[in-house]
């Protein structure tokens, strides 16, 4: 009897020791949460209780978790729980078939923001394996509430993206240059087409589309007779096209939001347009803000400020319950695109653009007192609305057009011709080689330095009536005078002085503008090239905006302003200080007025306000022996109000009347200042 009692005692002692050595619920659940936080879902499943495993397969569990967490882009999972005390753990060791409930908290980051919730885990003690029921451990009674408590009784997780509204582009007076407005989406309800082939042919003819494209849309797998099948988009202003389309049975329209460019051709090169996103763009961007059906800026400011205009997508993560109700568990607010406001004045922009009519050329207008850009014009141009909502062959027509309407001329550089002479004068004065009052006896229409130039001669357009000084040279635009001054200055000094005016330097501007260059290689080893450069030929090239900017030197006491494009930029900043002394800047300003009253730009006296400025012509020679087309420039400003300065160039003016560009300039100024001449006469 004693022996039996002893055996029972030993057995009970062994069981007690076994229970004390087993892993505690705290340790077991800590391991479980560690696997969970590392998204090791197979290991998580292994720690489920038998009851849980009987209701869900490993594949179902792992795949569900993995998909949800992948869709939500889950990371940084932190799980905390209320641990049992030592006394509680010891008490469990004395229980038969014990179970315990541990409250826990989950914090995780998703692409929609943080998701936080509290829940309870029930752990049960079970044999580690069916073969050996002596070795026990703790297992988790899992349910869908571990994903989120709102899923405990069923439901599914939904994701609702919120697309940002693209920012608008406005002029200085908040006039729209790129806006979001309603457009017509034109489509077909197949079941309502009375004569399919005839209707499609008629529709294709109206839209100048390929019939095959319409048929492809109608043959898509998802199409049913009662569904609206989108075909194209048109502007509400295309009333004739709209009326013709609506007369076809089965053709319908839906209102939708689209990008519209009120400035049309006048602002196309500046503003640009949006277009369908490309596979190349998607591959090259690291941003998760884009999808295959998005639009993206293609040219101009739309492309330059894509990041600001695009905005950031919002998203709502919700749980749709069995009863149809929805509970939001995470939300990332949408960030609409920013509005970009420019210093551009659309009225000025359109006035300048419209004088080009069928001509090609470029112009830049700035406020010479603040540096604000008032207009950037490139002609000919294109209508971005037609590219977005026009016929299929619009782009092909533009690419084939010999006038090159797709070329952005205001961002490109050209030979400036004689409009550079005030800069050459300022350079010589600052270098100390040009005395404005010194006179030169220049005979005839041609001049050469000597035998070292071979047969080359500099030609001027008119004879002088006596000794030539700076004022006379600018009034008559005397190439010989400026060539002599450049040669006297020398290549090194000439290059140094022109670099002080910003040549061979990145232009400090929001919009990418070509660098103005002194020569193809930046040097002037050839003295003939030096002479030609002095009057804006040779290899010297400049943008219209840089030209306009350089003339601010003569209106701001010898300081050249830095041009601005965005309305929130600081104005009146100096880009280049002390390019010429204050009194010499005033001298050149006075001479530029005299160029209009007594010089080559007397046609500008027809303006309603007193103008100052400088003319220039550039012969684009095909070879050294044969001539080519001529580009004509005029840079001018109202001499009294000084509130606008325009550099304007017209291409291929060889067949135009003399002074054609000056006449176009006057046309613009008279639109800006209507009727002021009459009031002055009174």
Give the SSE layout.
Blueprint: H1 2-21, H2 25-37, H3 41-46, H4 50-55, H5 58-71, E1 75-81, H6 86-93, E2 99-110, E3 113-127, E4 136-141, E5 156-162, E6 169-170, E7 176-188, H7 196-207, H8 211-218, E8 229-234, H9 239-246, E9 251-260, H10 268-271, E10 274-276, H11 279-284, E11 295-297, H12 300-304, H13 306-310, E12 314-320, E13 326-332, E14 340-341, H14 346-356, E15 361-366, E16 373-379, H15 384-389, H16 394-400, H17 421-431, E17 446-447, E18 458-459, H18 470-476, H19 479-489, H20 491-500, H21 527-534, H22 544-551, E19 560-561, E20 574-576, H23 582-598, E21 611-620, E22 629-638, E23 645-650, H24 660-672, H25 676-681
Parallel strand pairs: 6-14
Antiparallel strand pairs: 1-2, 2-3, 3-4, 5-12, 6-7, 7-8, 7-9, 10-11, 12-13, 15-16, 15-23, 17-18, 19-20, 21-22, 22-23
Helix pairs in contact: 14-24, 17-19, 17-20, 17-23, 18-23, 19-21
Polypeptide structure, described:
With 682 residues, the protein is of the alpha+beta class. The strands form seven sheets. Strands 6, 7, 8, 9 and 14 form a five-stranded mixed beta sheet that branches. Strands 16-15-23-22-21 form a five-stranded antiparallel beta sheet. A four-stranded antiparallel beta sheet has the order 1-2-3-4. A hairpin with a 5-residue loop joins strand 6 (169-170) and strand 7. 38% of the residues are buried.
């Amino acid at each position: 009897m004693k022996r039996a009692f002893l055996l029972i005692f030993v057995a009970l002692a062994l069981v007690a020791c076994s229970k004390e050595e087993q892993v505690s619920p705290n340790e077991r659940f800590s391991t479980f949460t560690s696997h969970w936080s590392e998204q090791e879902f197979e290991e998580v499943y292994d720690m489920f209780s038998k009851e849980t495993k009987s209701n869900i397969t490993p594949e179902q569990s792992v795949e569900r978790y993995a998909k949800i967490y992948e869709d939500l882009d889950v990371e940084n999972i932190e799980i905390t729980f209320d641990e049992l005390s030592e006394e509680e753990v010891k008490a469990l060791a004395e229980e038969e078939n014990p179970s315990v409930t541990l409250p826990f908290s989950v914090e995780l980051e998703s692409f929609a923001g943080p998701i936080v919730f509290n829940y309870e885990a029930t752990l049960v003690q079970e044999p580690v394996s069916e073969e050996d029921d002596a070795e026990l451990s703790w297992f988790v009674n899992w349910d869908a509430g571990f994903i989120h408590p709102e899923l405990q009784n069923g439901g599914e997780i939904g994701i609702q993206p919120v697309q940002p509204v693209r920012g608008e582009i406005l002029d200085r007076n908040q006039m729209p240059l790129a806006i979001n407005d309603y457009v017509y989406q034109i489509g077909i309800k197949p079941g309502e087409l009375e004569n399919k082939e005839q209707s499609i042919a008629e529709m294709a003819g109206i839209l100048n589309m390929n019939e095959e494209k319409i048929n492809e849309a109608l043959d898509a797998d998802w199409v049913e007779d009662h569904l609206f099948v989108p075909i194209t988009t048109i502007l509400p202003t295309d009333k004739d096209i709209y009326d013709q389309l609506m007369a076809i049975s089965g053709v319908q329209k839906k209102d939708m939001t689209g990008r519209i460019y009120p400035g049309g051709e006048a602002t196309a090169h500046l503003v640009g347009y949006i277009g369908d996103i490309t596979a190349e763009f998607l591959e090259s961007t690291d941003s998760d803000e884009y999808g295959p059906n998005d639009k993206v800026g293609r040219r101009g400011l739309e492309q330059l400020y894509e990041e600001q205009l695009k905005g950031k997508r919002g998203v709502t993560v919700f749980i749709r319950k069995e009863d149809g109700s929805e509970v939001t568990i995470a939300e990332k607010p949408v960030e609409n695109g920013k509005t970009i406001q420019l210093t551009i004045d659309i009225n000025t922009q359109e006035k300048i653009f419209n004088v080009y009519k069928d001509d090609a050329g470029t112009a830049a207008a700035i406020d010479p007192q603040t540096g604000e850009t008032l207009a950037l014009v490139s002609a000919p141009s294109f209508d971005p609305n037609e590219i977005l909502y026009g016929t299929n062959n619009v782009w092909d027509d533009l690419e084939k057009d010999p006038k090159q309407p797709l070329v952005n001329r205001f961002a490109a550089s050209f030979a400036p011709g004689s409009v550079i002479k005030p800069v050459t004068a300022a350079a010589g004065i600052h270098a100390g080689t040009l005395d404005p009052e010194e006179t030169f006896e220049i005979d005839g229409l041609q001049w050469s330095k000597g035998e070292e130039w071979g047969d080359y001669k500099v030609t001027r357009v008119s004879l002088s009536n006596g000794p030539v000084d700076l004022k006379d040279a600018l009034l008559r635009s005397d190439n010989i005078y400026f060539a002599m001054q450049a040669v006297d200055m020398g290549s090194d000094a000439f290059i140094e002085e022109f670099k002080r005016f910003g040549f061979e330097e990145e232009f400090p501007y929001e919009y990418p503008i070509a660098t103005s260059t002194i020569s193809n290689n930046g040097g002037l080893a050839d003295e003939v090239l030096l002479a030609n450069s002095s009057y804006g030929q040779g290899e010297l090239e400049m943008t219209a905006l840089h030209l306009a900017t350089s003339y601010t030197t003569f209106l701001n006491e010898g300081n050249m302003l830095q041009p601005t494009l965005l309305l929130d930029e600081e104005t009146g900043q100096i880009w280049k200080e002390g390019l010429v002394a204050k009194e010499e800047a005033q001298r050149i300003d006075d001479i530029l007025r005299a160029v209009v009253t007594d010089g080559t730009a007397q046609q500008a006296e027809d303006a309603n306000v007193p103008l100052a400025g400088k003319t220039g012509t550039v012969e684009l020679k095909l070879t050294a022996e044969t001539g080519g087309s001529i580009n004509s420039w005029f840079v001018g400003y109202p001499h009294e109000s000084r509130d606008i300065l325009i550099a304007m160039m017209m291409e291929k003016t060889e067949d135009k009347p003399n002074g054609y560009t000056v006449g176009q300039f006057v046309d613009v100024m008279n639109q800006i200042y209507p009727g002021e001449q009459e009031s002055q006469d009174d």
